[in-house]
Amino acid sequence: MTEVIATNQTILVVGGGISGLTAALEAAETGKQVVLVEKRPFVGGRVTQLYKYFPKLCFPTCGLEINQRRAKMNPNLTIITMAEVTDIQGEAGNYTATVRISPRYVNDKCTACGDCGRAVESEFDNEFNYGLGGLAKRKGAYLPHTMAHPQQYVLDPRIIGTDDAQKAKEACKYDAIDLEMQEETVEFKAGAVIWATGWRPYDANRIQPYGYDRFDNVITNVEFERMADPKGPTGGKLLRPSDGKEAKNIAFIQCAGSRDKNHLLHCSRICCMATLKQTHFVQDAWGDEGKSTVYYIDIRAIDRFEDFYQNVKANPNVKFIKSKVASITLNRENGNPILNGVDVESYNRDGNGGYDRYSTEYDLVVLAIGMEPSVDKESFPVDISINEEGFIEPAPENGGVFAAGCASDALDVNRAVQQATGAALRAIQVVNRVAGTEG
Ligand SMILES: Cc1cc2nc3c(=O)[nH]c(=O)nc-3n(C[C@H](O)[C@H](O)[C@H](O)COP(=O)(O)OP(=O)(O)OC[C@H]3O[C@@H](n4cnc5c(N)ncnc54)[C@H](O)[C@@H]3O)c2cc1C
Ligand code: SF4
Fold first, then answer.
1. Are residues 347 and 244 in the same domain?
2. DSSP character at residue 228
3. Residue 268 has pLDDT above 80, yes or no
């Protein structure tokens, strides 16, 4: 049974991505009691699924490791994974939260030795790799990723009640598997709430003309991050999902589902930078044989990112075409996606009138899909002010509920972390006021 010790001076953080972790650690390190509730079996959020960060092209694992160490060392911070907040009652300084915790079927005795994973036979698509999950499946007993915090295996609920669950239990030398674990509901007090549930990739299936649902060699930018990662489904090789052929000639389509009233209204800002970064992955993989073509409306490389953009632009292996791609069709003989549209700047290059139509084939197409806030107003456990793009507003009527990171806007990691630190400060002020009135 999970026991949560909390008072109305406790800060509840919902979502354990880089923003939630930052807010929780900043508050806990000032001496506040913090409870962090994370839906998935591990903290770190979507940055754990990125290969490298722009602009420095360093690995996200680096910063995450530091945060995970800070979290382990801080007795003020309680992390509950596989959990969601189902209700929040009360007001600033005096909330009661209800949290539903799903069974992990593995307890704290787990050493992550992996014996259970080796013992089970069942395999499932690996959700960590988004839509490429079928290329490298995971077992029914699994560690979500190598750097997962907590370093504890999880049993897929689909194997519970099968022989595989029993095999996993028998394989564990540490008595860490508990097949009797049940869903739990816990209730505890909190003075302030930080909502840091981040973003989800826009559903590319909804952009019908691009055929993501029909063509294997049209993938999304989040999938491309997984593909480029040596720990990903292709071992870091840029290969076509349809036939495993090397993908050397790659097109990137910007604003796929963003800045469009039929999809996401807002500019996700990150996707331009993500594509510029991903052209580096192509170069690193194939050298001069790797060719990237970026189809864009305009490139949004804000502030200090302009230098990064200019460097990519200077690379002769990266071509930029100003055009909103109209549709993608398929060359059925070789599986190549064909991009169709109009190059609105062609007159600048050839001096011949311009607005040339193109139908160009590539090995692989990457859709630079946008970031959709994972805030669902309908099921939100407390009244909250949300803007028309779906992000939480910094509104006084939200009382002691503050948004951190991408729950507040489409942000890169640096900005998300800064914003989360600000949210921690606001939450601390609320619980300090409670302490002041009670003390
Ligand atoms: C293709 C792509 C590439 C990118 N590359 C870079 C890059 O190179 N450099 C960079 O700076 N930025 C990059 N970004 C942006 C970066 O991913 C975000 O800035 C970062 O993920 C924001 O972190 P977050 O904690 O706000 O959100 P998330 O990472 O989304 O974390 C939110 C957490 O909340 C949890 N959660 C969600 N709902 C609930 C719930 N109801 N209850 C409990 N928990 C919940 C989630 O499981 C998750 O752990 C990229 C984005 C994209 C799309
Ligand atoms: S549950 Fe047991 S067998 Fe599986 S990884 Fe943990 S300690 Fe090893």
1. yes
2. H
3. no
* Sign for the pseudo-dihedral over CA of 379, 384, 389, 390: negative
The rounded Å distance from CA 163 to ligand 2 centre is 17
Angle at 141 between CA 138 and CA 142, to 5 degrees: 55
Q: List C-alpha distances in Å: 267 to 37, 124, 214, 435.
A: 29, 34, 26, 41
Question: Which pair of tokens denotes residue 396?
Answer: 């006084």
| pLDDT tens digits for range 245-264 | 999 999 999 999 887 788 88
Q: Where in the sequence is the domain holding 326, given as residue range(s)?
A: 203-370
Nearest-angstrom CA–CA distance, 357 and 130: 33
Residues 342 and 227 in one domain: yes
Provide the sign of the torsion angle of the four alpha carbons 50, 403, 150, 152, taken in this order. Answer: negative
Give which of 28, 20, 39 is closest to 70, Cα–Cα.
Answer: 28
Q: Is the pTM of this model over 0.90?
A: yes
Please tell me the distance between residue 47's alpha carbon and the centre of ligand 1 in angstroms.
6
Any ligand 2 atom below 6 A from CB of 112 = yes
Burial of residue 348 (number of CB atoms within 10 Å: 0-12, 13-18, 19+): exposed
Query: Domain count of the chain?
Result: 3
- The residue out of 370, 387, 403 marking a domain boundary is 370
Residues ≥6 apart with Cβ < 8 Å to 23? 13, 194, 196, 404, 405, 420, 421, 423, 424, 427
Ligand at minimal distance from the CA of 55 is 1
50 and 17 inside one domain: yes
Q: What are phi and psi of 347, to 5 degrees?
A: -65, -25
Mean pLDDT of 397-416: 95
| Gap between the Cα atoms of 141 and 409, Å rounded | 35
pLDDT band for position 439 (50/70/90)? Answer: low
Strands 371-373 and 364-369: unpaired
Q: How far is the CA of 108 from the centre of ligand 2 (A)?
A: 10
From the CA of 153, how far away is ligand 2's center (Å)? 6
Pocket residue to mutate for ligand 2, from 177, 178, 179, 181, most atoms within 8 A of Cβ: 177
- Specify whether 321 is located in the same domain as 215: yes
Q: Which two three-digit tokens encode residue 205?
A: 């299936």
**To which H or E segment does residue 373 belong?**
strand 371-373
- With contact defined as beta carbons under 8 Å apart, do 219 and 244 qualify? no
Q: Is residue 176 part of a domain?
A: no
Q: Considering 370, 395, 422, which residue would you say is the last residue of a domain?
A: 370
